[in-house]
Amino acid sequence: MDYARILRKKERYDQAKDKIPEITVKSYVQAFELEFTHNSTAIEGNTLTLLETKVVLEEGQSVGGKQLREIYEVVNHHKAYQYVKSCISQNRTLDEAIIKDIHAMLMNHIMIGGIYRNVEVYISGAGHTPPVPNEMFRQVKDFYYDLAGKSFNAIELAAWTHAEFVRIHPFADGNGRTSRLLMNYQLMTHGFLPVSITKESRLEYFNALDAYGVHRDLEPFIDMIAALEEQQLDRYLGMIDRLDS
Fold this sequence. Notes:
Layout: H1 3-16, H2 22-43, H3 50-59, H4 68-89, H5 96-106, H6 133-147, H7 154-168, H8 175-189, H9 202-215, H10 219-244
Helix pairs in contact: 1-10, 2-3, 2-4, 4-5, 4-8, 5-8, 6-7, 7-8, 7-10, 9-10
């Protein structure tokens, strides 16, 4: 990861972002939120297409032939992301209460959320097995302690927050969606743009998380998040360049 290059792009973006018309920014933000919700739920097996997700979120319509749970998953994810943005606008530092709130929103009408698991869980296909409940409680306590004191740059912090949280797997379900929201919470808190891991890059994504889960090697995931952040910055900088030309 070339963090210095990303910082230079972020600085250019920060200096010139007010040039972008408000209606353009709004359309980009809406498109991102739709794609983020679609990708994050699809990674976990949700079968709604991007267009069906749009119909549910923007038109409030149900989609025939889909399970009610799938509808709730996309509606809940969208609401949880709005909550993340609201917390950041209030300058709230990410903590246990916020994370439990995020999970409770994601699980609304699906299961009781915001409560840590008291059962063992396994992740099919992964080389890492999440800790048993007693050990999980100790590790999640350490996670919150470390969350306040890690000497990482913003990209590294976002990657670690996601990878460590999903490694511990503190909830019975919804850890992936929760951790992707936490990743963006950290990015946006530090003035970076939110990113969306596409369902098409699922294999690279799972391999990067497994490298951390098994070997504590965070570099592949840091590189993945850095590349996504740079793509986001390039998209906005391209807009700015077109306005200047």
